[in-house]
Amino acid sequence: MTTTTDPADAGTWAQAAPIRSLTVLPAHREDVELHTADGLRLVGELARPLAPGGGPATPAATLVTLHPLPTHGGYMDSHVLRKASWRLPALADLAVLRFNTRGTSSPRGTSEGAFDEGRGERFDVAAAIEYAEFHDLPHRWLVGWSFGTELALMHGHDPAVEGAILLSPPLHRATDADLDAWAAFGRPLVVLVPELDDYLRPDEARARFARVPQAEVIGVEGAKHLWVGEPAVRRVLDEVVAHVLPGRAPLPTTWSGPAETAHVAPAAPDGTDDPADDEPADETRSATPAPEEDA
Description:
This is Hydrolase of the alpha/beta superfamily-like protein. The protein is of the alpha/beta class and 295 residues long. It has helices spanning 79-92, 121-134, 147-155, 176-185, 202-208, 230-244, and strands at residues 2-4, 11-18, 23-24, 28-35, 41-48, 61-66, 94-99, 105-106, 109-110, 140-145, 161-167, 189-194, 215-220, 254-261. It has one domain (2-284): Alpha/Beta hydrolase fold, catalytic domain (Rossmann fold). Strands 1-4-5-7-6-10-11-12-13 form a 9-stranded mixed sheet, with helices on both faces. It has a 3-stranded antiparallel sheet with strand order 2-14-3, covered by helices on one side.
């Protein structure tokens, strides 16, 4: 399925209005399928900038996203990744590829296979990178969140990738050997660590990632593992754009022109998919994953 947001199928804001949690900005969006080397079909979505004629435009760069832990509510629609796909094609000329890793379900559908603790998922990461490369999506960066950071560190050092951005890395499955491999890879590694993270906080993260000379560890004051609340989301998206496309951040917080408001959906099991997370009160609410696991 291909969907395009334009004045014919969306409301038009005559004056600049705030970009809120459920705001969907114009883009060319299509359902995609990835095919792994071990024979699985994975479901996903590709959002690209919208060309003047209504078709897809060539993006300035591409984000290949890797979602949080599926056994604790993570999937391709986990809120930061979903909002990246809703905003960044229009605001930053970026393509955003999201997909469900093996055995993961979302409204888009269920990817074949079964969760494999990050081992078999190496084929999923490779399939996503290959898809972006085959479809001439330029300047590919990995953006992993929590479990997705483990996948990026363990399986993401591919010559077709220009760098990686890690959100809330727990460093549970990824080992020092994986960090050493990324150090040898030599590509940029940007690490966003919430001040109040449940698993790895900024000082410890700086010590762990010291093995990677090119790693930039950024502590984010007041943030939590799940990046709940619109201020946290904006900080993440600004950092992503600032590193992938220097000079394009900070992003606008208002928009005039065609836009949609997404339908309200129930909160995801990880507690992040709340349509009310524009509100300041949500920035401090509790959203803690299960002990000894990463969401």
